[in-house]
Amino acid sequence: MQSLNIGLIGTGYMGKAHAVALHAAPRVFALSAHPVCDLLADVDPELASRKARELGFARATGDWQALVADPAIDVVDICAPNFLHQEMALAAIAHGKHVYAEKPLALSAAGAREMAEAAERRGVKTLVGFNYIRNPATCLAREIIASGEIGELVHFRGRHDEDYLADPELPHGWRTRRATAGAGALGDLGAHILNLAEYLTGRRIVAVCGDLQTLIVQRPSPQGTDTARVENDDQAQALLRFEGDLMGNIETSRIACGRKMGLAYTVTGTKGSLIFDQERMNELQLYRHDGPPGRRGFTTLLSSPEHGDYGAFSPAPGHGLGYNDQKVIEIRDLVEGIAADRPLYPDFREAWRVNRLIEAIEASHHQAGWVALH
Ligand SMILES: NC(=O)c1ccc[n+]([C@@H]2O[C@H](COP(=O)([O-])OP(=O)(O)OC[C@H]3O[C@@H](n4cnc5c(N)ncnc54)[C@H](O)[C@@H]3O)[C@@H](O)[C@H]2O)c1
């Protein structure tokens, strides 16, 4: 069986999630190629060596440039902060490596475009970590929408709220600076719901009207000695117009007290509706506008082997998957796409689109008016 040697960069929150999924994927799925946790990079050699031991990688380096140039590496997996994605991915592509990168792909749409075009020119595969589309409950929602079961689409409502920066005493990190994160909640969380809006409806967003706000305007410096300005949004909202005259909206916040993983959507059609909340990620609410009026109501569909990739994890309906399982499915898609030389989704070109939507929402906020996307 073909092996795919993985070089992982960054071992924070996402680096660990990727490592866990890389180890689990060959146990959950019968893969056509074997992902090998080969080389791991972080900011210094000691940290990288310790993390390689913890996360089950064979080799470690304190220099990501050595990782992307290493002849043994087939796939470069980028779990570093946003501002590093572009430089790392372009270097990996130049060395002919496939690239699996976290979202948002780049700090700007122009940066994401350069990455997408470089990968296409070089003929390498790319995949971006919009993992929520892999949740079997959301795969079921997409299937229900595409089949016409809830009729013609009438409205899309999406949000992604968390409260990880609700405490004003939390110091600056890379997420609060423009130069290291790009957009704030809109880029970090809104990116997911924008990707989901198009994935679920099967339609492109053609115009946006955005509104952004930074409410915690100063935060302590990481050293705690002084305070500095927060450079990106704490919360954002946007009205959306999709092709086919579908109306919708999104909201996102990183200071929404109480919301821990509040990615949610409501999709309304002429014959029914769907409601989903990632905090209850194994449930999809389906309403069918038929039957006697006094008996109509939402039905809870618990994730089951009939839905998406659930059955690869468990034969038992309603027992539930977790966040990391979405990453396991993402790894399966990465490996199978590379092994079969098939296009991956969402690739850099698709993630460039999300960067364009983020930029359009920001531009719309600054211009105080609608912005069209072409
Ligand atoms: N898909 C998701 O659900 C999801 C969730 C969280 C984060 N993310 C994305 O994952 C990426 C990483 O986020 P995180 O929360 O894991 O961040 P983090 O701060 O927890 O980890 C970042 C890691 O990158 C390392 N790093 C920084 N500079 C480096 C360099 N020059 N060379 C090598 N390593 C370097 C850090 O030491 C750290 O190990 C971001 O792009 C973020 O948007 C995605």
Basic shape: globular
Helical coverage, percent range: 25-40%
As laid out across the biggest beta sheet, the strand order is: 16-15-14-13-7-12-11-8-17
SSE topology string: EHEHEHEHEHEHEHHEEEEEEEEEHHHE
Uncertain segments:
none
Give the number of DSSP strands. 17
Q: What is the CA-based Rg, rounded?
A: 21 Å
CATH architecture of the largest domain: 2-Layer Sandwich
| Major sheet | 9 strands, mixed
The fraction of residues in strands falls at 25-35%
Termini Cα gap? 44 Å
The CATH topology of the largest domain corresponds to: Dihydrodipicolinate Reductase, domain 2
Query: Which CATH C-level class of the largest domain is it?
Result: Alpha Beta
Structural class: alpha/beta
Q: Mean pLDDT, as a whole number?
A: 98
Tally of helical segments = 11
CATH superfamily descriptor of the largest domain: Dihydrodipicolinate Reductase, domain 2
Bound molecules: nicotinamide-adenine-dinucleotide
Provide the domain count: 2
Structure description:
The structure is a single chain. The protein is α/β, with parallel strands linked by helices and 374 residues long. The chain folds into two domains: 2-131, Rossmann fold, CATH 3.40.50; 136-280 and 282-318 and 353-367, 2-Layer Sandwich (Dihydrodipicolinate Reductase, domain 2). It has eleven helices and 17 strands. It has helices spanning 13-28, 45-55, 64-69, 82-94, 109-122, 136-147, 178-181, 185-201, 310-313, 323-339, 348-367, and strands at 2-9, 33-41, 59-61, 75-78, 98-101, 126-128, 153-161, 205-213, 218-220, 227-229, 235-242, 247-253, 262-269, 272-277, 283-288, 299-302, 371-372. Strand 5, helix 5 (109-122) and strand 6 (126-128) form a beta-alpha-beta unit. The radius of gyration is 21 Å and the shape is globular. The mean pLDDT is 98. The site of nicotinamide-adenine-dinucleotide has 21 residues, from helix 1 and helix 4.
